[in-house]
Write a structure and sequence with these properties.
- By secondary structure, this protein is of the alpha/beta class.
- The chain folds into 3 domains: 5-121, 2-Layer Sandwich (Gyrase A, domain 2); 138-213 and 384-444, Four Helix Bundle (Hemerythrin (Met), subunit A); 216-371, P-loop containing nucleotide triphosphate hydrolases (Rossmann fold).
- It contains 14 helices and 13 strands.
- The protein has helices spanning 27-32, 88-100, 110-117, 123-133, 138-148, 151-175, 187-216, 230-238, 281-296, 312-317, 361-371, 387-409, 413-431, 438-444; strands at 5-8, 17-23, 35-37, 47-55, 58-68, 79-85, 104-105, 218-224, 256-262, 265-271, 299-305, 326-331, 349-351.
- A 7-stranded mixed beta sheet has the order 3-4-5-6-2-1-7.
- A hairpin with a 2-residue loop joins strand 4 and strand 5 (58-68).
- Helix 4 runs antiparallel to helix 5, helix 6 (151-175) packs antiparallel against helix 13 and helix 12 (387-409) packs antiparallel against helix 13 (413-431).
- The longest helix is centred in the middle third of the chain and has 30 residues, at 187-216.
- The two termini are 16 Å apart.
Length: 451
Amino acid sequence: MKDTICAIATKLGMGAISIIRVSGDESIKKVNQCFQGSDLEKVKSHTIHYGYIKDQEKMIDEVLISVMRKPKTYTREDVVEINCHGGIFSTQKVLETLLKNGIRLAEPGEFTKRAFLNGRIDLSQAESVMELIESKNETAREIAFSSLSGSISHFIHEFREELKKLIASIEVNIDYPEYEDIEKITEEKLEEKVKQFLIQLEKIVKNSKEKQIFKNGIKTGIIGRPNVGKSSILNHLLEEEKAIVTSIAGTTRDVVEGEINLDGISLQISDTAGIRETEDLVEKLGVEKSKKMIQESDLVLFIIDGSNSLEKEDRLLFPLFQKEKTIVVINKEDKGIQIKKEQIPFSHVVYTTTKEQEGLDSLKEEIKKMFFKEEILEREEIILFNTRQIALAEKAYHLLKEVLKQLKQGIELDLISLDLKEVLDQLGEITGESYPEEILDTLFENFCVGK
């Protein structure tokens, strides 16, 4: 990490301004070599300076340069940010000039990696940076920002400190049993403490798993027989003509997808082929995909043509659905409804029409009722927002359950101490207080260049 790195920090393309970030011990010196303006090596920290980037005697671009001296920077190294004119060609020319002056092109996520290795942020906060950038809805943004602000870090740190104290007490009792002024760790006291740890971890893991659906978006499948209005409903939800709509049964052969935002939550919607018996090979494959979609979706919209009486074919489909995640949509309300809610053995049933703009309001309200039963994020709630963190917390939880089992079996305390140390390591991997070296490259390689 001794070399100086640079990268374009803004999206490359047409725009008024592009920012190129430079970080490293020689960042100010090396940028100064290709800058015509104030002597950057003599200016105060956190100041902005007007001038030109030049390649030897050739002027490249008119720029504003921000100089930030360590340690109060993103990477805790000297950082220079060059604000140049936007556009692919001019930005690339400035970047090329920096590379000619001995600055290396940064790897994906290398700025954030340096921030972590230099102790400015921990691993959970580093991950939250990318989560914040990639947020698809307001809930995902809130979860990522909460972690970036240190909510996970604080919880894990406090949890590990309590665990360290417990391990230390066990080891003192083992090594110095003759000392009368130390607290005796009985199996009852240890069991009580482990149970407290389990309660905390169980709550965190459960909440985190439940919130994943809101962070990633609700996977929603539109299912039903042919010609019941599935594609029309998709188009109206997306407010665009994404799927072909005709009166010919079996028009939709493959999955058509789109995404909407409903009160800050993403719905990833898939319109599927109508489910029916067919000899058409392509349509048959589409039907199989539809059945698979029923199992994989977080929410299923089962569409029925309400302008006709309830068909036998519709009834035969009922067993395919899990009632707690299915909304039965009785469509074509504008043509006169022939089906009553009492005929449908599901608790979530709505009437809709795609003939008018408000025709799907009842459906949207029912989705909110299913998924917005309470505040999505409670104040001070700790959410682990990716599978890596949740997997580590789950492993720590199961290790603690094993410790509890061992206590009841009368296993020696020195062996229990070893398992508690493994719990300590698992939780430490979440924040990076302990981590395998190989995890860093894998984690940061998914970051965008320049972050």
